[in-house]
Design goal:
Nitrilase/N-carbamoyl-D-aminoacid amidohydrolase, alpha/beta, binds N-(4-carboxy-4-oxobutanoyl)-L-cysteinylglycine, hydrolase
Length: 325
Amino acid sequence: MPKSLIAIAQLTSLPTPGDTLPHVLPLLTQAAARNARLLFLPEACDYLSPTPKVAAVQHAAPLAKGQNLFLDALRSGAKEHKLWINVGLHERCTTDPTRCWNTSVLLDAEGEIAGVYRKVHLFDVDLRDRGGPLILESSTTVPGEEIVDPVETPAGLVGLQICYDLRFPSPPTFLQPAPHILTYPSAFALSTGPAHWSLLLRARAVEQQCYVVASAQVGEHFQGRASYGQTLAISPWGDVLGELPAHSPSNPHPAPELLFVEIDTEAVEKVRREMPLEHSRRRAEGTYDVARLRRLERVRREEEGRDGVDGVDGGGKVLEQGGSI
Ligand SMILES: O=C(O)CNC(=O)[C@H](CS)NC(=O)CCC(=O)C(=O)O
């Protein structure tokens, strides 16, 4: 520390974990050969399945050792190569067996689980007017309920988010302590990627004043589903430090690839010293929003009090005096 090398993968997951795994494992060897400390793999790295619904969850497995072929192989690889790994998986949901969680797991260099985050924001959209899909992620996936604390890794503190979460600026503002790296493992849509992918990832880096790392699915997973790609690493100042190619219809099955980037936690601290956003941030309590709500509440009470004295039901009454907002 404070400088360390990380590897960020771009690949095309296939419809089963068994088919996908042989494309993923060589990336661990390649990352370790370059002495990377941490490897980032994409969302839904275990498989991307055609609808219908049943097919989409039938390979979802618990995270426990011995119950997840895909994660077990990554655990062994992490241990063998002394490599931390972040990976997106379909996790079997214990509360609803017909759906899964969209989960991001962080493995330490012993292959033990150091962090688990379940995607909070689900991709329920109708983009058919834009040549895109109608997708209801919530039909196969149960939303996570928690933002999880950043995890200390050899590359710095890592904050876990997933794909569509990148459209929501607020969750990272609640991460404590503030991470050095925010990661968004993704499988972005072809119809939204060109307009929004790099724009939003850069915005998250500038707002949070940290590295943003987004390992992306790319290419055609099966007939009718492809991902946008353009794996990205962004600096705490918002510069693109490195990227891998976006999907190209002329190359629907590109070979898995790694992007190597050096992380310098001191660069994060420097930007935060120069422009102390966290110091200037005004949380809901004591700010303009809350002051305005209090004013409205006071007016409402005054009105009720008056009605009470008059013995009149106040429902639907218009203020006659005072109560300026
Ligand atoms: O379906 C699976 O098995 C894995 N999950 C995904 O691919 C998810 C939900 S469909 N994709 C996204 O969130 C894309 C978001 C996006 O493209 C945007 O925000 O524009």
